[in-house]
TrEMBL record:
Keywords: Hydrolase, Membrane, Transmembrane, Transmembrane helix. InterPro entries: Sortase (IPR005754), Sortase_dom-sf (IPR023365), SrtB (IPR009835). The chain crosses the membrane at residues 6-25. GO terms for molecular function: hydrolase activity. The lineage of its organism: Bacteria, Bacillati, Bacillota, Clostridia, Lachnospirales. This is Class B sortase. The keyword Repeat does not apply. The keyword Membrane applies.
């Protein structure tokens, strides 16, 4: 009798675990599939006559799928996996468990802090994304803990609905706590903003040597870490250039 009970319990535990694993894997698959389909619909990449790669975003298509669209983020050459639409809504919780097309899924979406302006002209704009175990979303930000990876991949790019391509030069990367000054978005004056910039450099895992002044604007990319629920991996880039591409 005891052996049979143990066997039944073991079978139940196995079935529950198998279902949970299937649910997780299925969620990853559906998430990847959706974002691949979004890229196919909205992104074109062509080589120009001078050999440069031309990256273009069809924001009309994106807006048709989700009117919360405020941009697109891309890394080139690596981590190339980070290549996603950006959304923003009235809170910072909606897109934790909803994809770009508003499907319920733990992969969520890459979203801009609700307290920022959607034009990326604030002194510090924060962008959030999950660190998924299948290396999707903002998982690969963790690679910037190694200075050698930053040296090979010091830039990321944001594209906006009004036709801008903004180039950001990463000047700081490392782990912080979720309550750190990295997440400040309002600054009383230049001195307060300078203190923020100094803090982000001090919190970096290494010195990039990239200059940042109070005349600059920055974007902070944030995701979870394996360290603890209170820690975050952040990559902070300063706007280096901006051009109109369409």
């Amino acid at each position: 009798m005891i052996s049979n009970i143990i066997l039944v319990v073991a079978v139940i535990v196995f079935c529950v675990s198998a279902f949970q694993l299937f649910y997780i894997i299925s969620g990853y698959y559906e998430g990847r599939k959706e974002y691949d389909e979004v890229k196919d619909l909205a992104i074109t990449e062509e080589e120009s006559e001078d050999g440069e790669n031309q990256f273009a975003v069809d924001f009309d298509t994106l807006m048709g799928i989700n009117p919360d669209t405020v941009g697109w983020i891309r890394f080139d050459p690596e981590p190339a996996q980070i290549n996603y639409p950006l959304v923003q809504t009235a809170d910072n919780s909606t897109y934790l468990n909803k994809t770009f097309s508003a499907s319920d899924n733990t992969v969520g979406a890459i979203f801009v802090n609700t307290y920022n302006n959607p034009d990326f002209n604030d002194r510090n704009t924060i962008i959030y994304g999950h660190r998924m175990n299948d290396s999707s979303m903002f998982h690969d930000l963790a690679k910037y803990e190694e200075q050698s990876f930053w040296e090979a991949n010091p830039y990321f790019y944001i594209y906006t609905p009004d036709g801008r391509e903004i180039t950001y030069h990463i000047y700081a990367a490392g782990q912080v706590t979720e309550t750190s000054d990295t997440y400040l978005t309002d600054f009383a004056d230049d001195a307060a903003y300078q203190a923020f910039l100094d803090y982000t450099k001090e919190a970096s895992a290494y010195d990039t040597g990239v200059e940042v002044t109070t005349q600059d604007t920055v974007v902070t990319l944030s995701t979870c870490t394996r360290a603890s629920d209170e820690h975050r991996m952040v990559v902070v880039g300063v706007k280096e250039s901006e051009k109109q591409i369409n």
